[in-house]
Specification:
The chain has 544 residues and is mostly helical. The chain has helices at 9-21, 39-45, 49-54, 69-90, 99-103, 119-131, 141-159, 168-178, 183-190, 202-215, 232-245, 249-253, 259-272, 279-290, 296-304, 311-328, 334-350, 354-374, 376-396, 400-420, 422-442, 446-466, 468-488, 492-511, 518-543, and strands at residues 65-66, 116-117. The longest helix is centred in the C-terminal third of the chain and has 26 residues, at 518-543. The termini are far apart.
């Protein structure tokens, strides 16, 4: 079991790659636990062939546990008792405190709308109730626990004769934002905090790093110098409070983070952004994106680990891509600009802004077309990809004739590339043929649509023989489309043959534990039922 895998996906990759290259004698199941899904999961699955064929296509969401009101009350009392006993063993301060009095009349947290509750939510609330010196005060549990932590920080600082009362909270926020780090990197992170910059502050940085390490020791393995504030909701609330009061902290700290730390920071911020007051975190990130002194290379590193969810991060990613397009316009690297225009179009399209996405995609097409004139071997593939994207956005805007034209040009380019390099470009050709077929069908051109999808089926069938995990889904989708094209042309038996094969593949994928194919299987089964009814109806008419 590997916990907090979103903060260390490289370690998960190493474990899986080792198990694949050194098969154990008995079956092994690796449980990867994370607090949220996102870009880290997509990157992890595509990190190597072993990852894509071993890690499930989509993460499993662990739901909150559902209990009755009576069971919730029992769990609440059990938590109060166990945590109260633990506090008195941990800190002699609480041996003289009547903790039972603090819990008198205390009620457990309310159920969610679904009738469920997170175990951590219940335990945090119980601990907050035990620590609260004013039981009648209606403070959120995270704030009660943070107040207790701050008193702990102050006691340790006093023991170390560590002043810097104004800087200490910012240093702690920088450490939590960047996550566990080797000593040199930890000191570099602190050097970005206002008041800790320059050689004159070196001793202060060392003292603060030791203070944080004393408060939150690092994991027993690895080279991290300090650990993290736990549980996660406390770190999230602390970042909300810190960045609300010091919005530019992220602007200072994020450029100093390595890719793993950036991924940690964004994972933490994405969860915190969903909390009350979390809007300030997105505003701080937007400030970093648009800061005049933000370097393109720092923005690119941030974009590389930007999650797609929650929605606020999808919008920020579009802002970031747009900002990088603006910065790249001032340079001479036209290929780099075209690449960022493609990213911008993709992000805008995913936000439901097809007009803006088409504008960016069209500029990417024009840029790659100019580049391909001089260097076709280098840029034709990119031109085909940008045409494929342009076709999608044109279709979404109802500009079907233009969409077909772009898709047809993409197919022509990719077909010529696949003839020279089949292993590299046949999958892309199949994808463009599928797109072309769909656009032609939308215009009622069913015969050329069928011809395109038949070619796509042939390519996917060949690819699936060698790489079934990667290409069976594409084969099933193409067969489904082929069935619809046959039906549109009145070729009922051919339509039934195609849809039956599509169902067979999708049943196989679903039986293999790939639940994401269940809706697609249901769709194919529905088409098959309609076709069978049509055949029965025709046969009935013939008998009369």
């Amino acid at each position: 079991m590997l916990d907090y895998v979103e903060t260390r996906p490289e370690q998960a990759q190493q474990i899986v790659d080792y198990l694949v290259s050194h098969p154990p004698r008995c079956p092994v199941r690796l449980l990867l636990l994370a607090r949220a899904s996102g870009e880290w999961f997509t990157a992890l699955r595509s990190a190597s062939t072993a990852m894509s064929t071993t890690v499930r296509p989509e993460p499993l969401r662990v739901e909150a546990f559902t209990i009755t009101a009576t069971e919730r009350e029992a769990a609440w009392q059990e938590a109060l008792t166990a945590l109260g006993n633990g506090l008195q063993l941990l800190d002699e301060v609480y041996t003289t405190v009547d903790l039972s009095a603090r819990c008198t009349g205390a009620r457990p947290p309310a159920f969610a709308d679904s009738g469920s509750i997170q175990a951590l939510t219940l335990h945090v609330a119980a601990l907050a109730k035990l620590l609260s010196e004013q039981p009648e005060a209606d403070l959120p549990p995270q704030r009660v626990l943070l107040a207790h932590e701050r008193r702990y920080w102050q006691r340790v600082a006093n023991r170390r004769d560590l002043d810097m009362d104004q800087i200490r909270p910012l240093a702690m926020a920088a450490a939590q934002l960047s996550g566990p780090a080797p000593r040199a990197n930890a000191l570099h992170i602190l050097a970005q905090v206002p008041g800790l910059r320059g050689e004159m502050a070196e001793q202060d940085r060392r003292a603060l790093a030791e203070w944080i390490r004393d408060l939150y020791p690092p994991p027993a393995t690895g080279d991290a110098y300090w650990g993290s504030l736990q549980p996660d909701p406390l770190a999230e609330q602390y970042l909300i409070d810190s960045i609300t009061s010091e919005p530019e902290l992220a602007v200072h700290v994020l450029p100093a983070c390595n890719p793993e730390q950036l991924r940690h920071a964004l994972t933490l911020l994405s969860r915190a952004a969903a909390r009350p007051g979390g809007k300030a975190l997105m505003e701080a990130l937007s400030l970093f994106v648009h800061a005049p002194h933000s370097k393109p290379e720092d923005l690119q590193r941030l974009y590389a680990v930007m999650p797609d969810q929650p929605q606020a991060f999808a919008e920020l990613a579009a802002e970031l891509a747009t900002r990088l397009v603006t910065l790249r316009r001032t340079g001479k690297d036209r290929a780099d600009l075209a690449g960022w225009l493609t990213n911008q179009a993709s992000r805008l399209g995913s936000l439901g802004r097809p007009v803006d996405a088409l504008k960016a995609a069209t500029e990417a097409v024009d840029t790659y077309r100019q580049l391909a004139k001089d260097h076709p071997d280098v840029y034709l593939a990119s031109l085909a990809g940008s045409l494929h994207n342009q076709s999608t956005y044109l279709s979404s805007l109802g500009r079907l004739e233009e969409s077909v034209k772009a898709a047809t040009e993409a197919v022509a380019i990719r077909r010529s590339l696949a003839e020279e390099h089949p292993n590299a470009y046949r999958p892309d050709l199949a994808s463009s043929l599928t797109s072309q077929s769909n656009q032609l069908a939308s215009l009622g051109r069913h015969r050329p649509s069928l011809e395109a999808t038949i070619e796509a089926v042939g390519i996917y069938r060949h690819l699936a023989e060698e790489y079934p995990d990667a290409y069976l889904p594409g084969l099933a989708g193409s067969l489904h489309n082929q069935s619809l094209s046959h039906y549109s042309l009145g070729e009922l038996e051919e339509a039934l043959g195609s849809i039956t094969e599509a169902i067979k593949i999708r049943r196989f994928l679903t039986a293999a534990g790939k639940e994401e194919f269940e809706p697609l299987l249901a769709e194919s089964v529905q088409v098959q039922a309609l076709l069978l009814n049509e055949r029965d109806s025709r046969q009935g008419e013939g008998s009369h």
